[in-house]
UniProtKB/TrEMBL annotation:
GO terms for biological process: nucleotide catabolic process. Residues 456-475, 538-562 are annotated as: Disordered. Keywords: Signal. Residues 35-266 form the Calcineurin-like phosphoesterase domain. This is Metallo-dependent phosphatase-like protein. One of its GO terms (cellular component) is extracellular region. Pfam families: Metallophos, NadN_nucleosid_C. Residues 357-581 form the Putative 5'-nucleotidase C-terminal domain. PANTHER family: 5'-NUCLEOTIDASE-RELATED (PTHR11575), ADL392WP (PTHR11575:SF22). It comes from Leucosporidium creatinivorum. GO terms for molecular function: hydrolase activity.
């Protein structure tokens, strides 16, 4: 069993300027209206506490920064708003390690509620589990009131007498006046997410824009539109920002439109037209987004100026922009309280000491430094086994279920949630012919993971260069998957390839994001050399052919015929059950595989306990 060691998480506050954290290199571009944005925080409110000083600020630091920048905005006589585009659970012990008695993210919602958001919306991760969605409604949505804006998500609630009523998860839109008297019309759309729990309903954005309430809401012209939604700002198949902007443009051809997206975890900026800007502020509390608009009060709409920045989330950044003494009492108390919560959640509990770092993006999945290789070569063959089965097993992982790197050193309960946050169980389909099993991984990687969204959107499928993606010739319902992790990795790899071939003298810079977005000038607030990133497959598996089982199972036939040896058990996370079933049915026609062929493989392990077991056995 794991032992509680006197081990503390690293300092929540980043060391002073003597630390190797780089400073921003220029002032922020202030406008008449300025907007700070967060997205895809996934529970990282304590910041990054190992090796990544560039992202080591915490929620208390962000709070103080926002408070100081709001003061500065008042001093300048301009507006400063704060928005969040969702995805607050799945990915960190602070949300997923919530002690029994509350749903995941319950405590973290109180930290979120401290932040003076003007518009805050939901992501898809709040909607995978019905109790999490209900807690979001009861706690966060109720706390923020009209500022919690979800334009296309309904929730069906059961009252104490078992009567059902369907409510909008949040306010469908918000009309408000800024401190400087500007009028704002805000919406909070979610992409057409279909993998949500029962009791939740998401309307496709292209249907939402036809609703009478939407048309009424956009009829009156505000000073600017504020769209804050959980949806990639690129024209990916699950993104419909263009549809929403177009609907507004039909009524207001020139009114400024600001878009704050998310979901794809990248720093990004695009322009739908010259009077709008769309920004995505990365992921995991690595980035704070900034957008400013100048000339917003002028009747002449040809003079509008939009700027954007991606701030590294650390105390040097905040000191540079808000002053050395940017801390506030409330910010400091949030920091202190987070440290206590980490202790209360037992997140410092050490399961072992990782002998080296294992990365998700930096090395090919075949490298000994890859977390995917660690899992498929060592962890799964050791732990996900069934001695009672007569056949060898092939375990397939969707790499999207693995969310972060393992750093050399203590491996804690918090790290376990960071790496594998989902409670996915290991299922299997027994006795699949070896010839079919052999084709499974290549097939799955060809068609990709099943879509989270229905792809009835009116936008076209494009690559990050806005070129059409090559269509797969294979006719398959899942073809052209564009999973978040895949897009994130593709973008990192592209940026790394582009910048490492052109930059000089970059070795003096610290590693970090070097963003190649679609807006003019450089967006990164701090200069870096890019972190290496290479392409990774969507699915990985244990070795094929699998070694024969070290089985206790009495072979059903003592002669152990050729036929029996030719079978393999296919093991996988329940999340990708649809992918496995449809792949097996595409690869052979002798049998139709259905849910009825699937059983639990190991009951004692789930995705989120896998690394604990491994660290306790191999790293302690
Ligand atoms: N139970 C789950 C849920 C999700 N995944 C993986 O996460 C991806 C979606 O997460 P985003 O942050 O990108 O929205 C999804 O594509 C899966 O790969 C999972 O493995 N298990």
């Amino acid at each position: 069993a794991a032992v509680q060691l006197p081990f503390e998480l690293g300092p929540l506050q980043q060391p002073d300027s003597s630390s190797p954290v780089a400073n921003p290199y220029r002032q922020l571009p202030w406008g008449d209206v300025n907007i700070i944005s967060t997205t895809d925080t996934h529970g990282w409110l304590m910041g990054h506490q190992r090796q990544e000083a560039g992202f080591s600020g915490d929620w208390g630091d962000v709070y103080s920064f926002v408070a100081r920048m709001k003061d500065e905005a008042r001093r300048r006589g301009v507006d400063l708003l704060l928005v969040d585009s969702g995805d607050r659970v799945d990915g960190n012990g602070l949300v997923d390690g919530e002690p029994a008695g509350h749903v995941k993210g319950w405590t973290a919602m109180s930290y979120f509620a401290e932040m003076p958001y003007d518009v805050i919306t939901t992501g898809n991760h709040e909607l995978y589990k019905y109790p999490v969605a209900v807690a979001t409604y009861n706690k966060l949505a109720k706390h923020y009131g009209e500022r919690y804006v979800t334009s296309n998500v309904n929730l069906t609630l059961n009252d104490q007498r078992g009567k059902q009523r369907t409510v909008s998860l949040g306010n469908k839109y918000r009309k408000f006046k800024t401190e400087q008297g500007r009028t704002v019309t805000a919406f909070g759309p979610l992409f057409d997410f279909k993998a949500h729990a029962a009791g939740i309903d998401v309307q496709a954005p292209h249907e939402m824009v036809k609703e009478p309430w939407f048309l009424d809401a956009i009829a009156e012209e505000p000073s600017f539109f504020l769209l804050v939604g959980h949806m990639s700002i690129r024209k990916e198949p699950d993104s419909e920002w263009s549809t929403i902007v177009k609907a507004i443009r039909e009524v207001h051809p020139h009114t400024p439109i600001t878009v704050f997206g998310g979901h794809h975890h990248i720093r990004d900026c695009v322009r739908e037209d010259s009077n709008s800007m769309s920004l995505a502020a990365g992921r995991y509390m690595e980035t704070v987004g900034w957008m400013s608009i100048k000339g917003i009060d002028s009747a002449d709409r040809s003079n509008l100026e939009f700027h954007r920045r991606y701030l590294d989330q650390n105390r040097n950044t905040y000191k540079y922009h808000a002053g050395d003494d940017f801390d506030t009492k409330k910010g400091q108390s949030i920091t202190k309280s987070l440290t206590q919560t980490a202790k209360d959640f037992n997140l410092t509990l050490q399961f072992g000491v990782a002998p080296q770092s294992y990365y998700l993006y930096r090395h090919p999945h075949t490298s000994d430094k890859s977390i995917l290789k660690l899992l498929t070569d060592k962890v799964l063959p050791l732990l996900v086994t069934r001695p009672d089965r007569p056949y060898p097993s092939l375990t397939i992982l969707n790499s999207g279920s693995i969310r972060f790197d393992i750093f050399k050193g203590p491996f804690t309960r918090n790290d376990q949630w960071i790496i594998l946050p989902f409670t996915n169980s290991f299922e299997y389909i027994p006795s699949v012919p070896r010839s079919v099993a052999a084709k499974l991984l290549p097939y799955l990687n060809l068609v990709g993971e099943h879509h989270l969204a229905s792809l009835t959107s009116t936008t076209t499928t494009t690559s990050s260069d806005d070129e059409p993606l090559p269509q797969l010739s294979i006719a398959h319902p899942h073809a052209q998957a564009a999973s978040v992790e895949l897009l994130y990795r593709r973008r990192l790899a592209e940026e790394y390839a582009a910048s490492s071939s052109t930059s000089t003298g970059e070795e003096k810079l610290t590693p970090g994001y070097v963003t190649a977005d679609k807006c003019s000038e450089l967006g990164d607030d701090t200069l870096h050399r890019p972190i290496p990133a290479v392409w990774q497959p969507t699915f990985v598996s244990t070795a094929f052919p699998p070694p024969p089982p070290s089985t206790n199972a009495s072979s059903s036939s003592s002669s152990s015929s050729e036929e029996e040896e030719d079978k393999i058990d296919i093991v996988f996370f329940d999340f990708i059950q649809p992918d496995i079933l449809s792949a097996l049915n595409a690869l052979q026609k002798t049998k139709t595989f259905t849910e009825g062929d699937v059983s639990l493989f190991v009951g004692s392990l789930t995705a989120n306990t896998l690394m604990q077991s491994y660290a306790e056995r191999e790293w302690s």
